Amino acid sequence: YDALKEDVKTAAEGWARDGGTIGFISIEGEGIVGAYCVADKIRDEAQDVVKALKKMGIKSIMLTGDQRPAAIGIGSQIGLNEKDIKSELLPEDKLTEISDAVEDNEMKKKCWRAKRAVMMVGDGVNDAPALALADVSVAMGEGAALAMETADVTLMDSNLNKLLHSICMGRRVIRTIIENVLFSLIVKAVVLGYALAGKASLWAAIASDVGAMLTVTLNGMKLLPRKTKENDIAQGSFGEIQTA
Fold it and tell me: Distance between the two ends of the chain, CA-based, in angstroms?
């Protein structure tokens, strides 16, 4: 490598900064005669997804087996800080990173705070052990079969916008459940109060029970998908996601 021309070294270093993996071609007796660069294509929506996750209060960390210069080159293009980029990791190293994060959350867990969860997103065979250990695991639909079998959630394709949609849908489901439970308890408490006061009849109790059932059912139906939202997801619209 030291015998290479300076322009070749400069080009190779530039490729590395841009997130590429550098390789060299050599001939016995003549040394290195050529260089090439192989790089992963960054998905068009990746940067917007990272920004949206940050607005939602979700910290993103990149775990990769690529060399440090290539990892930093890719991470910087999607908006990650160097401290959030873990590079040159073997499968067991990824497993250790996820294990440490899960254990750290368990140590910080308090009864008056919601538990922090660790989500792992991967698509390769090497990601399967870490996917199995994470609190929530997501596999990309175009990834390895082992990763999809191990993960809790499998996206039908590799569109990262659907990852955001899944997170927002989960939050909406939890919020809807809380709304329905609170509404039902309030209705029961009101009817019970009237009954204890001797001002409630059997038919009033039946009507309130059926009315509450219909109300929580209709409230739950708002989670059903609509065609306009599906189009927004496909086109990368984050209007709903940012405010979730």
Answer: 52
- Has residue 182 got a pLDDT over 90? yes
Q: Are 180 and 226 in contact (CB under 8 A)?
A: no
Q: Are 59 and 84 in contact (CB under 8 A)?
A: yes
3-class SS letters over the chain: CCCCCHHHHHHHHHHHHCCCEEEEEEECCCEEEEEEEECCCCCCCHHHHHHHHHHCCCCCCEECCCCHHHHHHHHHHCCCCHHHEECCCCHHHHHHHHHHHHHHHHHHCCCCCCCCCCEEEECCHHHHHHHHHCCEEEECCCCCHHHHHHCCEECCCCCCHHHHHHHHHHHHHHHHHHHHHHHHHHHHHHHHHHHHCCCCCHHHHHHHHHHHHHHHHHHHHHHCCCHHHHHHHHHCCCHHHHHC
Whole-angstrom Cα distance, residue 51 to residue 57? Answer: 10
Q: What is the mean pLDDT of residues 112-138?
A: 84
217 φ/ψ sector (left φ>0, alpha ψ -120 to 50, else beta): alpha
CB atoms within 10 A of CB 198: 6
- With 80 as the cut, is the pLDDT of residue 39 above it? no
Contact 139, 148 (CB under 8 A): yes
Structure tokens at 149: 């079998």
